[in-house]
């Protein structure tokens, strides 16, 4: 009688494991059990994730309350708002919108805001895109110093320089000029735009430019036709993040503009505040008119903003 070690079979007998419990990992039922356990783990939602979702929804509900109050108050009369500030907007009245758009001259203010904001965003984005591409592809010490100089502008609150800016604009004849206001906003947005766009350009492989050069493209064609379309999410992010503060700014138009016909929407809202009385319904209607373009902008550019903010976070 021969002794055969466990786990080694003979020609007539199959091999048998010494410990049957160790075979569970390869047994017929082990695969289904592990898949069931894995499926359970995949479907489970972490407690922290559920808590974060609940907190975000609660925050969203509280954030919407002022907007809903603003919207409902814009459909009420001024006397009704004074007597019952939290009442329901019934019956609906559009008199406040007509008064704000015509008597309040909001049609002119709206056009001024569009002109200044779009001009400033376009100017800032174009200049920053070209500068960011040059800084991202340059290796010299001078360009690193220039990048640090641009980024240092992020540490300077532009509103603190209101007095020297006013004297500068007065000296060059740009006071009471929408062009001067747009140039000021465009220049103030260059540091932030360069900070974002330089990072995106550095993530693009240099082989793209080499291939374009081999195909006969000039540096200018390579930049505009190949590199700029690849950073479109970043451009959208920069444009939106510059559009919002410029559209809502109150201080610079108030200080630098003199003619009422050149006022932007935030300054135009002050026309409804009198020394002895305030037209609250027209103020709320003006706020709705001012806020509506921002809401539309975020709804249209949401995907591009998310793509721009999350690009480069994962390899």
Main sheet specs: none
**Number of DSSP strand runs:** 0
Annotation field: number of helices: 15
The proportion of residues forming helix, as a percent range, comes to 55-70%
Q: Uncertain segments of ≥5 residues (pLDDT<50)?
A: 1-40
Order of helices and strands: HHHHHHHHHHHHHHH
* Mean of pLDDT: 81
Shape: globular
Please, could you describe this protein's structure?
By secondary structure, the protein is mainly alpha-helical. Helices cover 68% and strands 0% of the residues. The protein contains 15 helices and no strands. The chain has helices spanning 30-43, 47-73, 78-83, 95-103, 106-137, 141-152, 162-172, 178-188, 190-203, 207-214, 219-230, 232-248, 251-256, 265-268, 280-310. α6 packs across α9 (190-203) and α9 packs antiparallel against α12 (232-248). The radius of gyration is 31 Å and the shape is globular. The relative contact order is 0.12.
Structure at a glance:
This protein has 315 residues and is mainly alpha-helical.
Supply database-style keywords.
315 residues, mainly alpha, 15 helices, 68% helix, disordered N terminus
How is this fold's topology laid out?
Blueprint: H1 30-43, H2 47-73, H3 78-83, H4 95-103, H5 106-137, H6 141-152, H7 162-172, H8 178-188, H9 190-203, H10 207-214, H11 219-230, H12 232-248, H13 251-256, H14 265-268, H15 280-310
Helix pairs in contact: 4-15, 5-8, 5-9, 5-12, 6-9, 9-12, 10-11, 12-15
